[in-house]
What does this fold into?
Amino acid sequence: MTARICSAALLVLVLAWGARADEASDAKARQAYAEGKAEYDLGHIAKALEAFENAYRYKPVPALLFNIAQCHRLLGDLKSAAMTYRAYLRNDPSSPQASKAKELLEQVEEAMERQTKAQSAPPLGLTTPTQPAPAPAPPPAAAAPTPAPAPAPAPVVEAPPKIVPAVTRAPAAAVAAQPAPAPVPRQRLWSYVAGGAALAALAGGTVFGLKANSAASALQSTPHDRAYLDKQEPQIRSDASKATALLAGGVILAAAASALWVFEF
It folds into this structure.
């Protein structure tokens, strides 16, 4: 019985330690998210990107991928933006922001295609127009002097046309129209685990307790020989010990689940 109580206590300690570690990660993720949102609102997109990536490392919530993709797009990193939009749609395809993410992904892919075409276009060279043939000189007159030949026109050099690169950064109006970053949802995984274990332990203790009480009542209500009593009494004591250990463990786990529920609020 002592070993069972120690095992139950050890289980509670392990669950409590895991809950504290998860709570610490949640706190760091919330802090990084708050920093990222503040930098995003101030227009410091590079700092907001770093903060959102740190928040995702502490707690990989799909909503943070949407925020990271927005930052990549506004910074002009179209390839990273497209990859992050796709990751967001894979991890949370039924999100309310899924349609918006698909629309932005299409815009980013079109901009990437225009950029690729602009970069692969061959450079334009310098062209020189063909010089016109000189007019034949008139026959010299007897008394008039021969006029000097007119100078040839200077060649005209055409300047190459300006190649306008594809626009990779959204206008300022598009930045203001973007939705606010999604908050980090809370989870109570360890509270549910501890609560489920508590219910299982209490149910098992109740079953063994009823079994022991039923057997004891049967022995008291009907006379039996000594051999039968010696055979049944150890089993009754074993069931009673199991019931006591399980009920005690269930009470401890229920208390732990209540504490975790408060801590994770």
